[in-house]
Amino acid sequence: MTNHWTDMKNADVVMICGCNPAEQHPCGFKWVVKAKERGATIISVDPRFTRTSAVADIYAPLRSGTDIAFTGGLINYIIENERYHHEYVVNYTNAATLINEAYDFDDGYFTGYDQDGRRYDRSTWTYQTDEFGNIMEDRTLQDPRTVFQLMRQHYSRYTPEVVSEITGMPVDLFLRVADAYSSSGAPDRTGTWLYAIGTTQHTIGTQMIRSYAMIQLLLGNIGRPGGGVNALRGHANVQGATDMAVLYHILPGYLAQPLQSTHPTLADYLAVETPKTGWWANKPKYVISLLKAWYGDKATADNDFGYDWLPKRAKDYSHLPMFEDMHQGLIDGFVCLGQNPVVGGPNARIEREALARLRWMVVVDHWEHETAAFWKSENGANPADIDTEVFFLPAASNWEKAGSFANSGRWLQWKEKAADPLGDSHSDLAYVFQLGKRIKEHYADGDNPRDDGIRALYWDYDEVEHLEPDIRQVIKEVHGFTINGEFDIRTGTIVNNFTALAADGTTACGNWIYSGMLEPDPDNPDDLTVFHNKMENRTPDENLESDDVIGASLGYAWSWPVNRRILYNRASANPEGRPWGPRKAYMRWDAGEGMWVGPDIPDFGATKAPDTPGVAMQDEGSAALGFHSGTDPFIMHPDGRGHLFGALNEGPFPEHYEPLEAPINNLVSSVDFNPAAVIMPSLEDSIGSIDKYPIVISTYRLTEHHLTGVMTRNLPWLAALMPELFVEISPELAEEKGIETGDVVEVSSARGKVNARALVTQRFRPFRMGNRTVHQVGIPWHWGFQGVATGDIVNLLTPNVGDANTTIQESKAFLCDIAKVADAAEVAAQEV
């Protein structure tokens, strides 16, 4: 999130698209309800009429997978009706920037496409610069090569009529949504955009999110209270997991993971990854401090701080390619920690077959779930055919371990342990710590140079109860400390925050964005080897729900970076440093004090005046024009501007493509499917077509169950609340298929089939698109063959095809068919 949960109450318009927070985030949703009580307009855009839709002022249905047609239409509407925040757009975005003359777009393709490689050469997707490298622009926005005019031309094709024919949203309803949301472009109003996995799990999911950001930039809704692009995380600590680099392609703090091809040495890495301007110019400090945290005294300037020991990625190791390699017998072992891919992975038959081709697998979890038990005969397998050796390690629950949660709004909140782990179960921290100790012991006496990194790894934490390391030493390493003499986490003195990190090897920091979460112990302020944990802070703003309180609550928990609650908050004031309007006053420049003041932490130097000039290039290699002047809010970008034009793998502007399996052809170009999306080889013979599978289907979650159901289907009282797999069907489709509520139906796709109870409901209605009718159904995905409540695995239906940037699967829009297996009366008789 650019903003945070509490800030949603400050919005004048709330766009809820790709998520269902009333059911999936009910505690956070209270702040949307608060906004509504204060007069905000709530808009729900969803294929299904959800409980969120029931609270909304406007419900606008759209066919799954067509978000960019919808948002492209909004961009067109905002520009042509001049609803954009002109002063914000000119000063704070790259709308005025001139783009390379060689850049073009034609019938679904941007310049540089390689048909055989299914990828783009992005060399033409660049800015025009002068002889010194200064970015060229036209602040009148009239030059046809400005980002603004190229964007205007690109989205002119997305008329209300075209949007309606693609999405199924009636024209008059689309125009009502467009008028309501674009009203947030007025200087004294803001709108917030909420999304979740309903957006991400598409082959164009990343571009969908970029389109939301573009709309928010056009309307001046980034960096301001009640604004932002806000991802609703699907688990209590998903934000923390990504911050700490559970994702395959990053190191902690969103540092790029080294590639064999482009980053063989530290010098290469820093040269490629470090821009000359923007906050990322500090990247060497963060990388070298990270290497010091990992390798301690063994990381020296003479050996590039141990960079050679850091693994270099040779290929994509995200979930889909990893299981593809596993399926082809290229992977020997798999540590399955906190996941259940037999239920949660796409094209689940392939995932299960892949596990049978391993030599060994270690599962760490609360219960023996479907992945741990994939080999058992009662689950349909033949153990004699499976050589995989499975080890199951019982995990402590959330309530049996201390630690932090990083919520959707980047707030880190510390929790203490409520009870000791049961039996022989242990925390993840204990298992990783003990595994590291044993691996180091195993390699201690070796002499193979490839193992030097394991031997050099700093692992000297004090062991406390339940096989765990001292967790306060761990968070001290993550926060960062100055090395005093010999490297020792006990004697290092905590840094103030990441601005104190150095690139000379004198500081260690496990995650630069978390640097600042500790402070000197108020009872012993002179001893910086001890500290107070700010994540424990629990002092919210007084009268938090009052209309007069903005709700930043700096005394509650700790938010990265440096406790900032709204990112890019320089944009909450105009170029002169004054609030855009009294209703939305947030940060402002106080000339008398010579500093920025307001309820939050300034998103750049607190004393950096609005009239601070940028540095113009005078010769090759110097800093660039206007970069990080006092009016450049977007400090992470080299140009300091929000990017309306910004390169992703399939283009610099989001473009609508249909899902891999779609009921119609693309109506805005002749290119039906994302030309850069990633199709797994194991899928190529099982792609469905409209003639055999005429119904659009989407998966979703329920309030009563959690993810793959491991933590809920094993609890009888939760299983009883939602005991059985079902599929939601519109009355029109049910009549066409001869189906009634309670019937057992078979839902089939090109990859598999499942049985479920039919739930005939008006929450789904047919989409009328042009001259044809398209039906859509929805099915939750929490069931499996283990636990108290069991049911078929819905991901047997989904395709293992990935987004071009993330390779996340396309679970929210594919094709199926439905047929009745048994009517409700027969099932009831059998149960009796």
User: Helix- and strand-based class?
Assistant: alpha/beta
Give the termini separation. Answer: 51 Å
Average of per-residue pLDDT values: 95
Q: How is the main sheet built?
A: 6 strands, mixed
- Enumerate the strands of the largest sheet in spatial order, edge to edge or round the barrel: 27-29-28-34-26-32
**Beta strand %:** 5-15%
Number of strands: 34
Low-confidence stretches: 617-626
Please give the share of residues in helix: 10-25%
**Tally of separate helices:** 22
**Rg on CA atoms, Å:** 27 Å
- Assign an overall shape: globular
Could you characterize what this model shows?
- The protein has 832 residues and is α/β, with parallel strands linked by helices.
- It contains 22 helices and 34 strands.
- Strands 27-29-28-34-26-32 form a six-stranded mixed sheet. It has a five-stranded parallel sheet with strand order 3-2-1-8-9. Strands 12-13-14 form a three-stranded parallel sheet, with no helix packed on it.
- The longest helix has 16 residues, at 428-443.
- It starts with 12 loop residues before the first strand and ends with a helix.
Topology:
Blueprint: E1 13-17, H1 21-24, H2 30-37, E2 41-45, H3 51-55, E3 58-60, H4 67-80, H5 86-92, E4 105-106, E5 109-110, E6 113-114, E7 119-120, H6 147-155, H7 160-167, H8 171-182, E8 191-195, H9 197-200, H10 205-218, E9 229-231, H11 238-243, E10 250-251, E11 255-256, H12 266-273, H13 283-295, H14 319-327, E12 333-337, H15 341-344, H16 348-355, E13 360-365, E14 389-394, E15 403-406, E16 411-415, H17 428-443, H18 452-456, H19 471-479, E17 481-482, E18 493-494, E19 507-508, E20 518-519, E21 532-533, E22 558-559, E23 588-590, E24 595-597, E25 678-679, E26 695-700, H20 716-721, E27 726-729, H21 731-737, E28 744-748, E29 753-760, E30 767-769, E31 772-774, E32 776-780, E33 801-802, E34 814-822, H22 824-831
Parallel strand pairs: 1-2, 1-8, 2-3, 8-9, 12-13, 13-14, 26-32, 27-29
Antiparallel strand pairs: 4-5, 6-7, 10-11, 15-16, 16-22, 17-18, 17-19, 20-21, 23-24, 25-33, 26-34, 28-29, 28-34, 30-31
